Every structure is written in structure tokens, then in C-alpha cells.
Amino acid sequence: MTPSLDVTYVGHATVLLQVDGAKILTDPVLRNQVMHLRRSTANIQADWYRDVDAVLVSHMHYDHLDLPSLAMLGEKTRLIVPRGMAAMLKRQGFINIEELAVDDSTTAGKLTIHATPASHDRARFRGGPSADTLGFVIEGSQTAYFPGDTDIFPEMSSLPANIDVALMPVWGWGPTLGQGHLDPYRAAVALQMISPRLAIPIHWGTLSPLGFKWFSPRFLVDPPHTFARHAQTLAPDVTVKILNPGEAVSVSHTNGK
Fold this sequence. Notes:
Elements: E1 4-11, E2 14-19, E3 22-26, E4 33-34, E5 37-39, E6 54-56, H1 67-73, E7 79-82, H2 86-91, E8 97-100, E9 105-108, E10 111-117, E11 134-139, E12 143-146, E13 165-169, H3 184-194, E14 198-202, E15 207-209, H4 212-215, H5 223-234, E16 239-240, E17 248-252
Parallel strand pairs: 3-6, 6-7, 7-8, 12-13, 13-14, 14-16
Antiparallel strand pairs: 1-2, 1-17, 2-3, 4-5, 5-15, 9-10, 10-11, 11-12
Helix pairs in contact: 3-5
């Protein structure tokens, strides 16, 4: 049987990766409302986060580090986080925390997880606690790259050459983007540097401020399609697969590209 990498796009930056018997969840946001942001798509299914082997947290922002969502997973859930984040999590009662700095590695089952740079704001809020910002390469029989929130950074060209699936952030939660993000065009430029077999756009179509879904809906729909068009021009050797929040795909070495 050909090993597969099963990818479920839960929504925003939350993705369930299943490979080599391990379940890895990224930046869990498992609620229908986070601060002023409402989930614009179908409700979360418990199967998307039940019995995960490890959670990867990329940075401190509320739409990526949602403490009530982590509490839903349980205080003993293994959290792999950037350097500087553990103290806050310990104060919240979590007991299985591992901090990584850029270029550090750890394991989860048969997988090796490498911490990569990310170009993004470090603070939870202005003047508040801060920690490093990371992406992660998850390496097993297939390899996935989760950039977290980031703009383009030079080390993208030095990521492993065998990435099967890149989970590419292409937008955010509002009609405009701040610094430290990839928009559809810059995400396609990043594909030239990373050169994965398959790219799945994430960080779109899920969260929006109350009312924006009705008054300005296109930012919830357009970004992955704009990204796919740019990718076709800038990185034609990379296959793009658009998953709506809640959808899944199984990727094998024979069907990626």
C-alpha cells in the first residue's frame, strides 16, 4: 500500500495532518467565535481534533493560539510551540509543552518535526507577552510544510527539497492584510522558492468580523482562486488543490503532481 498523507482543512490556519499513524493538528481554532471574529463556515467536527498526537502552534496571535480551543483538547495534549510561549501555557494548566527555536527538531511517533523561521509579529497584543514565530516541516514517509503566519523570508529557498504538501497561507480574516502575511501573489512567489509537489491554500474563508460576511463577502471566497491563477504562471510545476473549510484530501506519492 502506498503511504498517504491525509489533509483536512479545518479552517483558517487549523489543519489536521495524518501520516504514518500520527495525527498532527496546527494552530487549533475549534470554536465558532474568537474575540470579534465569527466562523463563516460549517461547525467544527469532533473527529477533526480527537486523539491528536501533537499540536503545532506557530505564534501568539489570538486567531492561532486560542486557549479555549487548546483546553478542549485537554491539559495533557502535547503542545509543540515557539520559544517563549511555554510559561503562559503552564499558567493556563497545560502540562505537556515542548518549546522549539528555529532549526530545532523533535519527533512525534515516526515523524520528525523541524522548526523553521517565520516573518511575523511576535506579540500576543501590543505591549503584551511575546514569543518566537515559527513554521514547521513535518517529515515522515511524506513531508508537509506548515508556514504559520509569515511573509516571504530568504530561508524559504533552503527548506527541504522533498516537500510533498505545502499549506500556503493566502489571506487572513478581514478585507485587508497587515504586515507579515502572504497575499495570493506573494504566496505564489513563495512557491517558486519552496517548490513542493502540491500546494493547499489555507488561512482564508473561515473567520471574519461580525457582519463582514454579508457586506464584503469576496475576501472569504476569492483568495485561493487568485493564488491558483498566480501559481499557474509563477510555479507551473506545482499542483494547487483548493479545499474549502471542512474538506479533506488524501495525497500519495503517485497522485500529488
